[in-house]
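G., the chain you wanted modeled:
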Amino acid sequence: MPTAVAKVESLARRMGLIRPRELIDRGLPPTYLSELAKKGVLQRPARGVFLHSSRELSEHHSLEIVAKRVPNGVVCLLSALVVHGIGTQNPREIWVAIGPKAKARAPRLDYPPLRTVRFPGKAATDGVQELKERDRRIRVYSPAKTVADCFKFRNKIGLDVALEALREGWRTRKFSMDELDRCAAVCRVRRVMRPYLESLTALVPAAT
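Predicted structure as tokens:
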């Protein structure tokens, strides 16, 4: 019968990223994670998160860590643009949407740098997709929802960023106009976006 330490190592190897809470839920001592890290069996890419040394960090390793530490968060705005390959943004922080202040406490991470934005009501739940990254599912807003969010939070990220996202997303067919219109309605930015959409469809046809 495998020892508790062997069980922890096997679990870490299977899951990739693992937190102490996941051992506690299985009746295993979380101190074994630190012991295995000292032996080099595990790495600690962030506080409270361990990675088996046989597993390489993926292209989206920062997003994997955020998904582990903030399971109810959704990658949004500038970081979602990067995930979908829209525009030229390269944010230093991971942008994550959380619920209203009364329902969600703002998380604190030592790594990666995190930027939280509170999304109200349906705007928090609409357009959520799941990106499969090894054993982890990363929640991220769809391209159309992300563009609408950029206009919703244009005072926070800049109107130029929102316009670039709209132009590049449309040019590369990341969404249809019907999808974008529905998301604009959810985010209550239809009126704001209308003149830009009219100009865009007249001057920039979608890629074929």
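The chain has two domains: 4-52, 61-203.

Shout if anything looks off.
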